[in-house]
Amino acid sequence: MERMVGAGQGPPEHRAIVVVGAGAAGLTTAIACAEECRARGLEPPPVLLLEGARRIGAKILVSGGGRCNVTHRAALPDDYHASRPVIRNVLREFSVEDTVAWFASLGVELKEEQTGKLFPVTDSARTVVAALVERAEAVGVEIRTGARVREIRGGDGEHAPFRIELEDGELTCDRLALATGGRSLPKSGSDGAGYAFARALGHTVTDTWPALVPLVLDPAFPHAEMSGISHRARLTVRVAGRQVEERTGDLLWTHFGISGPVAMDISRTWIAAAEAGETPRLELCFTPDFPREAVETELLESARRSPVRTIESWLSIELPRRLARWILGRADLPPRAPIAQIPRAERRRLLDQLDALPLPVTGPRGWNMAEVTAGGVPLAEIDHRTFASRRRPGLHLVGEILDCDGRIGGFNFQWAWAGGHLAGRALARSLPTGPIDARGDGAPADPMEDAGSRR
User: Fold this and answer.
1) CATH numeric code, 13-210+367-429
2) pTM for the whole thing?
3) 206 has which bridge partners?
4) Which residue in 97, 191, 257, 423 could disulfide with 387, CB within 3.0 to 4.6 Å?
5) 131-163: per-residue pLDDT in tens?
6) Of 228, 256, 242, 272, nearest to 359 (Cα)?
């Protein structure tokens, strides 16, 4: 599978369709394109998939702790930071049910966990990558690894070919799909180079910042004492006293700060505010399922029913004991104090700690720990039915390069599978029908022709 592009002699190698990037979106785009080409009588499918890294699907392999959270049973527009109507239409065209059925056709059965996340029954991301690569090769996609793209130029005319400069040669193509990823996990090959390609081809790129990333707390804050403890919590980001976002889920305390799904989900909002020059405040609620008034009422009722019960015992009903002691220490309350003997002022101080504890965030843990990228090419610059560029005919953009990111739990993979299928089918439908040379000889058709239909 590892084949380098040679410089050769004479004119550059030419292909009808080139997909740059063999991650989730790129593999899906190439597979869907080749399948549609075959259905339309284009044999062999003129699809070339370029991957700069030596290994296919590096980001898939590390996702979900090596298990690959393929999708979520209920992917909805509200689960994404992007235009809700666009997301709704894309998910309607290729739904979670479509994803499950597609992976079943690849030989990958999925299982649903209590959280709604869907994983392969093997609990191995390698199963997913192997199935995608096997299908790509089976339908005639040519995969070249170690083929790092340095520059992409596009002709001025509608039918002028794209010129792709590699480290050891050059290619031209009639149709091009950029599935280069964002800036998260750069060691996987997702280093942000695709943004330069998009700009060179006429697109704009918004500011980008890490998303789904752990947050670092001020070392002076005693979070390290809680390292390893996980519990349900609510996190709230406020800017100038105004609530910007609120999330509830599992929080994990670490030696550097906080992680876990709820911290990862809300990280992009805190970072976005900080990047904009604001001073965001992150607040933690230890009792997310109960309003402050209800917690106080329960505390008073417990004092009436069991006046000698200690405050540590009462608090440990909902929270790990080590965490309960830590909270009591911050509230300056002795753990063995009977709840009936706690004065009102001390009780209110404890409620403050439970309901809205300020967390001194100093920043994210960085791109190497971020799962996705926030920002990118605006969705307004593509046709969401086909993921075709509105700026450059023949160009499609798919996956993380676009300004769309979802919360943790398989939502970003669902975006990749859905976009890849829509882009791949549209690429194939933009080519002339009938027999075709794999190198793409022949005049290309209008890239938007017949692209709006689903299958």
Assistant:
1) 3.50.50.60
2) 0.90
3) none
4) 423
5) 999 999 999 999 999 999 999 998 655 556 899
6) 256
